[in-house]
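Following up on my earlier thread - several people asked me to post the actual chain instead of describing it. Fair enough. Here it is, all 129 residues.
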Amino acid sequence: MPEKFLSEPWFNEVESLRDEAPPPSGPAADLVLNIVVTGAPDGDVEVRMDKGQFERGLAADAPTKITVPYDVAKDIFINGNQAAGMQAFMAGLIKVEGDMTKLMALQSGGATVSPEQKAFQEKLQAITE
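Reply from S.P.:
Thanks for posting it. Predicted structure:
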C-alpha cells in the first residue's frame, strides 16, 4: 500500500529498498544537502540528501540548505520533475541558504538518468501515495 511521502511508514519503505538503489552519479555522488520540506501532511520535515540517498534529519556539515514546499519536493524527488524545482525557485517558493553552487551542480547534472535510476524511481513512485 502506498504511503504518504516523507511519513514514517514511507521512510521505512524507502529504507527497505536501500540495497536496490543504484549508486549516485555526477554531482549527487558527493553531495550532502539539507532539505526542510514545509507543509507536509504531518508537519514540516527535515531530511537530507546524502550521496544520493534520502536520510532523516539534517547533517551538521551540509554546505547547503533548501526549504521547499511539500508538493514541489514530491514532484522533484518522486516524479523526477526537475523543471518543477527550477520553476518553484524562480517563483520564490524554494529558499536556499549556504553554497548555492552545490544546488546548481545538482540541477545541471540531473539531466541524464540511467535505466537503473529510472527503474528505482519507479519503485519509489509505487510506494508513494
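The chain has one domain: 8-117. That should answer part of your original question.
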